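Self-study notes.
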Amino acid sequence: MSKFVIPLSLFLISVSTQAATQAELFLKGVVAPRLDISITHETIASNLDLTAQASNIKVATLTESSNYHSGYKVKAKSTNGGKLVNTSDVNSFVNYSLTYAGTNVPLTTSPSQVYTTSNLKGTYTKELKVSYNQPTNLSAGSYEDTVQFTIETN
């Protein structure tokens, strides 16, 4: 029986020492997802002259970044529905309009789509500009509204 075991052992050793004719290297990389939005305010954004008419005054720059192949969309909502409201007299307000890269922003209290793109990757900046008619009969005080912008993938 030992004759049989020895030749089988030699055969197994000779097979395992033969050189391969092919080898594979598997490479893999990962790119983290990026979907960001930020606003850089102009000084005038918090110091608007409400005693005179305003037309296309740049109040901020919006920066959007994405690396999603399906693109992205930007939505906006206004706390006061497109009104600068007196902080101590809600019956005193200024209606205003806002543009995003020259397009009117729907200023509603629910998020509304402002922009959409498919297959656009990179970082882009858009100007935000405000306009309003010359207000009359305003109460003294501070007038405010907050417009919130969000970005999401398509």
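Second protein, same conventions, sequence then structure:
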Amino acid sequence: MKKTLMITAAMIALASCTTSHPGGMPAPQLTFAQFPPQTLNVQSATVSEAYEITSDPQDVSGQFVISPAEAIKRYAAQRYQAGGAGSGQFTILIEDARVHMKEDKEKSKVLSWADVGTDDIYELFLRLRVTPEPDGFNGRQSTIIKMERTLVMPSSVTLAEREMRQTKFLETLITDVDKKIQDLLDATPAIRQ
């Protein structure tokens, strides 16, 4: 009995060590510096949201170091600049950027009681409507970019580690979004300056 209590106490101490937040560590930043700005042959380049977070009570996107919708907005503002004349426009409409979270419990009763072995599973649902319309362009009007991604993370990681993993997850997501948007811009050469 003593041996079991000592093992359990050691596991709890280990779990509490791994969940402490080191003081003074700054949160990781998403700068999108790896994406050079592009000047497009349009009068306006905008990004906006077309969904309501409050309509989904399971959405936890606000618990990320930066929400996926905000990451898309910052990326687009840094990446795409309007530099043309006429009535051309480039728009990114965020139709969905929700994140759901569930826990995957460890099967061991002792480990689950000590909250060790539990994973947090984040499921991201992203849907963007991208419309490149240079002045006088009569091609296809818009393209839907749809992505579903999963981030699995041990619930025992520190807050700093959680933020770093979320940041890397968003960086990978934005890199994939950028590739799809670049393919769309390549199919619309009149939008390039």
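Instructor comment on the second fold: The domain at 42-191 is CATH 3.30.160 (Double Stranded RNA Binding Domain).
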